[in-house]
Amino acid sequence: MKVPQFMPFVAMEEYESIKRCFETNWITEGPLSSEFNKKILKIINAKYGVFAPNGTLALILAMKALGIKPGDEVIVPNLTFFASASSVEFLGAKPVFVDVNKDSQLNVADCKRVLSSKTKAIMPVHLFGLVPDMSALKKFATEHNLLIIEDAAQAFGIKSAGQSCGTFGDIAAFSFFADKSLTTAEGGFVATNDKEIYDKLLFLRNQGRRDRGSFIHPEMGYNFRITDIQSAIGLAQLKKFDRVIKNKVLIHSKYTTLLNNSEHVEILQPSSDINPFIPFRVILKTKSNEAEQLMTYLQECDVEPRGFFYPLHKQPAFDFLKDDERYDDIHFPISNHIYKNYICLPSFVSINDEQIEYVTKTINTYYQKGGNKK
Ligand SMILES: Cc1ncc(COP(=O)(O)O)c(C=O)c1O
Ligand 1, atom 12: nearest CA belongs to which residue? Predict the structure, then answer.
């Protein structure tokens, strides 16, 4: 049986929805985008928001609007998707890495170690449906006068202690890439509750002007528009978002139940504060640096696993940072452990029970055959 890592959850509803763009002859960012925008803000309970072409550009736009500039430093967790850190670098600022905890979330206790007179902001990343300790993080940010940029690329619709991801900090970036719980194929969104920041976002994303059609540009700006075709997909996706949440939680709990008796592995669990929990991927934790070998075995059996993020302090693209001792390997024991032990199991919305059973059976067989023989 073949089990892919991922399949987008799109079908005729999305197809029917994009027809509206062609019927009305409005394909660029327009009425459907403003309808989609309002609905997004309602779900995440934020006051203001703008679209961006993808999550990476949403992060860049968000930090630009906050005034992050060359020479500034931004604290970023060492285990996250590359774009969390590369977006800082693209603004000429420096991403400074801190270790994560065993749940793979930013470890606030490690932040003091990297503080400098240049530190301007901190970027919590809500990874895999989990949430870092936001009250400790906010306390730390207030004590040290730091701005908070939430990388909520994977966290649309998730709440922790009743508060939506994307509203804890000064600004937040979301991604609507095809593997996200809500997709527009490609797409991003920047949310804030601050009117002044919102005004900056409007100028920055529209060539430094407030209104389209004018050729007078009071400020510098880019083009961060999306299209109504993408928003039409997003609107159709919103209609089935409750089903997505329900299915994803079910998939997570099926894996948990089926592997409950294993002495070798366990499934990463959310804290009870997180509700709704919307697992971006189901994460399997192994114990003896087994990720690589288990993934090879799964692949041989037609299951497509995915490894964990490579620790950022080891990324070849960040070699130029390594003279600074804050990037020394010794500071990142948990990131290194997670990289060698955690893997992402296939957990797309339409995965069926047989496929989940096959994946867990394959994992159990791997251990019956002796597991890690390295
Ligand atoms: C944590 C995180 N940040 C940023 C991004 C970038 O989003 P995009 O792929 O839409 O540019 C992703 C995408 O997967 C992500 O997972």
Answer: 153
Q: How far apart are CA 118 and CA 88, in angstroms?
A: 14
- From 154, 109, 104, select the one nearest 129 (Cα to Cα): 154
Q: pLDDT by residue (tens digit) across 220-233?
A: 999 999 999 999 99
Q: Could you tell me the two tokens for 335?
A: 């990131």
- DSSP letter for 302, please: T
Q: Which atom of ligand 1 is nearest to 80's Cα?
A: 1
Report whether residue 87 contacts ligand 1, using a CB cutoff of 6 Å: no
All domains in the chain, ordered by first residue: 12-239 (3.40.640.10), 241-368 (3.90.1150.10)
Specify whether the backbone of 22 is left (phi greater than 0), alpha (psi in -120 to 50) or beta. alpha
Question: Beta strand 282-285 with 342-345: parallel, antiparallel or unpaired?
Answer: antiparallel
Determine if the pTM surpasses 0.85: yes
Distance 53 CA to ligand 1 centre (A): 12
Greatest alpha-carbon span in the chain: 70
Helices 353-368 and 291-300 cross at an angle (nearest 10°) of 120
| pLDDT per residue as tens digits for the range 292-322 | 999 999 999 999 999 999 999 999 999 999 9
Ligand 1 centroid to residue 366 C-alpha, Å: 32
Average pLDDT along the chain: 96
Ligand 1 pocket: which of 61, 104, 154, 189 to mutate (most atoms within 8 A of CB): 154
Query: Is residue 174 in contact with ligand 1, taking CB distance under 6 Å?
Result: no
How many whole angstroms separate alpha carbon 274 and alpha carbon 296? 33
Query: Is 177's C-beta closer than 6 angstroms to any atom of ligand 1?
Result: yes
**pLDDT one-digit tens code per residue, 51-60:** 999 999 999 9
The DSSP secondary structure of 34-55, one letter per residue, reads: HHHHHHHHHHHT-SEEEEESSH
